[in-house]
Design goal:
single chain; 291 residues; alpha/beta; Rossmann fold; N-(1-d-carboxylethyl)-l-norvaline Dehydrogenase, domain 2; six-stranded parallel beta sheet; 9 strands; 14% strand; binds nicotinamide-adenine-dinucleotide; NADP binding; 6PGDH_NADP-bd; oxidoreductase activity, acting on the CH-OH group of donors, NAD or NADP as acceptor
Length: 291
């Protein structure tokens, strides 16, 4: 298949690499020069250039506004009728349908297919896809998603994948804060952080955060996670807005949004999501170190 891939960062780079390794012709574009070549892909000169002649175009961009911008400025005019846009970004579901409408006028379909699995999942081809769209479009892209991931869920119509993704991530975001606060209680009381992590990992307090992040990036004080804190804040904001739009009052998630916003303001851009722990430590007092 001829594939265009737009957005070759932490996630998009390895994902596009897997598609090329599976034998597809992949033309990549990113605002960062050299991103396509670094993954052994053909370099497109622009998003429109990547989309020309493509059967399927993937987007893996920071948010739905960026996807809409690329579609409006480039893809709507460049994609051929019958082609398909697959947006893997974690995006605002309320923007997804509008973006699809811009393409529909050209006879181009759209599926939202955000992912879980982080940078390591993208590198290993072990992502989980949660998709919204038409059954026939899902069947068409199934082999492509299989080349990049270990599991695909078709969770509903267009926008459903993006809604599912925000629900997944807001749960993780709240677990980050609650795990940090609870472990700081333990530390102040006299428990050892690494021992607490070992207990949690085989007990009911276990989560993705305790099994995959505490020892790997927090307790060793690395704070190098490839997922940026501002992207998690975006996900928390999407979940809160989605809830408000449904008329729901969500006191804990609203407080969580304020905490993530304050951390983002204090820490500045391009910080690892694990830095949230360090920010919480500063606010509360105490450090999740074994000494
Ligand atoms: P990233 O910042 O590493 O990559 C985004 C890339 O998009 C950058 O290389 C940037 O140059 C490029 N870009 C931005 N605007 C562009 C444009 N108009 N045209 C072409 N390229 C453009 O971010 P990431 O971590 O790869 O995340 C991408 C998406 O995946 C986000 O929506 C994020 O929330 C989601 N996500 C990330 C992770 C993770 O662990 N990193 C996990 C799951 C989902």
């Amino acid at each position: 298949m001829n594939i265009g891939f737009i957005g070759l960062g932490v996630m998009g780079g390895p994902m596009a690499g897997h598609l090329a390794a599976a034998g597809h012709r992949v033309r990549g574009f990113d605002l960062t020069p050299g991103a396509a070549a670094a993954r052994g892909l053909e370099t497109a000169e622009s998003a429109a250039d990547a989309a020309r002649d493509a059967d399927v175009v993937f987007t893996m961009l920071p948010h739905g506004g960026a996807v809409r911008g690329v579609v409006e400025e480039s893809l709507a005019g460049a994609m051929a009728p019958g082609a398909l846009l697959v947006d893997c970004s974690s995006a605002e579901p309320w923007l997804t349908t509008g973006t699809a409408a811009l393409l529909e006028a050209r006879g181009v379909g759209m599926v939202d297919a955000p992912v879980s699995g982080a940078g390591w999942g993208a590198e290993a081809g072990e992502l989980v896809f949660m998709c919204g769209g038409a059954e026939a479009d899902m069947a068409r892209i199934a082999p492509l998603l299989d080349a990049m991931g270990r599991k695909t869920f078709h969770v509903g119509p267009l926008g459903a994948g993006h809604a599912m993704k925000t629900i997944n991530n807001v749960i993780t975001a709240m677990a980050v804060v609650s795990t940090t606060e609870a472990m700081l209680i333990g530390k102040a009381w006299g428990l050892i952080p690494s021992v607490m992590a070992d207990v949690l990992n085989v007990s009911t307090g276990q989560s993705f955060w305790t099994t995959e992040r505490l020892h790997q990036d927090v307790l060793n004080r690395k704070f190098e996670d490839g997922f940026k804190l501002e992207l998690m804040l975006k996900d928390v904001r999407i979940a809160n807005r989605l809830g408000r739009d449904q008329g729901l009052d969500l006191p804990m998630l609203a407080l969580g949004e304020r905490l993530w916003e304050q951390a983002d303001r204090d820490l500045g851009p391009a910080r690892a999501v694990t830095e949230m722990v360090r920010w919480c430590e500063t606010q509360i007092g105490g450090t999740l170190r074994d000494d």
